[in-house]
Amino acid sequence: MKIFLDTANLESIKKFNDMGLLDGITTNPSLLSKEGGDPKNAMKEITKIIHGDVSLEVVSTEYSGMMEEGKRLRAYGENVVVKVPMTPDGLKACKSFSSQGIPVNVTLIFSANQALLAAKSGAKYVSPFIGRLDDIGQDGMNLIKEIKEIFSNYAFKTQILVASVRHPLHVIDAAKIGADVVTLPPDVLDKMLQHPLTKIGLDNFLADWEKLKQKNLDTKI
Ligand code: E4P
User: Fold this and answer.
1) Which atom of ligand 1 approaches the CA of 27 most closely?
2) Total structural domains in the chain?
3) Among 6, 70, 163, 197, which is least packed by CB within 10 angstroms?
């Protein structure tokens, strides 16, 4: 399963990229707005740091505007995936970009039918938002199961990019289902790294090593 980071924060992107964990990045207008700086500079910088797919989202709501913005975003780097909303104009733009060989991520997917239609339009990725479904009392992970089954039935090449992930259990469940990608907020990836027994174990190892020093033995490795 590929791991994308769901952020426009350059520091977090560099931190996890240096650990070799990142296969790509997803951004959206809210995430770029949250960082507060020049959004275009941030988007350009991200495409340089990350070699994998970087989803950059259009903000036009009609087809021609989406096409113009998508082409400008795509000029930032060969790894740019144009992100369009799950609307009729978004799907029309998806079809046009895909026919030109430009990869598209269709975002704001909340039903299996929407995922099916985005795949038919040629999307490289569909982004079902599971956390936002959980928030309104619907089972977000069940949507991932449904999409997985449908895409498998018809051998769609479109990848399931699990979005709006809220905690590490979401990641385990998505991986068990066989989702292609999860996009994670930095705090979720941080939590996945940690386990209390790892810290306790390391503290004990180091304390035991200290005992050798007290016997005046050479402990420099
Ligand atoms: C996906 O591409 C979106 O950027 C993101 O996962 C949305 O998550 P949220 O519901 O936490 O805003």
Assistant:
1) 4
2) 1
3) 197
